[in-house]
């Protein structure tokens, strides 16, 4: 595999991940953070950082729109649910465990 093919495969996998996140609106970001240690917002930040590394103009709102497929506030209004006490406890535990590593 040459570098261009590798780049194309990575881009295709990214697009598929983003599409998966867009269709799985039932999965909350806090659940992804608790299970995988990253969420849609993290992916947006990584996208923005990649743009900045290449001297491309990108802000967080633009990056989130790429990942969410709509403005973040619109997605939040449509799909985000209030985090439960158990979700918040799991998140706090996860953060504390990660900080000690």
Number of domains: 1
CATH class category: Mainly Alpha
Terminal residue distance: 36 Å
What sort of overall outline do the alpha carbons produce when their principal axes are compared? globular
Explain what this protein looks like in three dimensions.
By secondary structure, this protein is mainly alpha-helical. The protein has one domain (3-93): SMc04008-like fold, CATH 1.10.3340. The chain is 74% helix and 0% strand. The chain contains six helices and no strands. It has helices at 3-23, 29-36, 40-53, 60-68, 72-79, 85-99. The longest helix is centred in the first third of the chain and has 21 residues, at 3-23. The chain is globular, with a radius of gyration of 15 Å. The N and C termini lie far apart (36 Å). The mean pLDDT is 94.
Nutshell version of this structure?
The protein has 6 helices and no strands.
Topology at a glance:
Layout: H1 3-23, H2 29-36, H3 40-53, H4 60-68, H5 72-79, H6 85-99
Helix pairs in contact: 2-6, 3-4
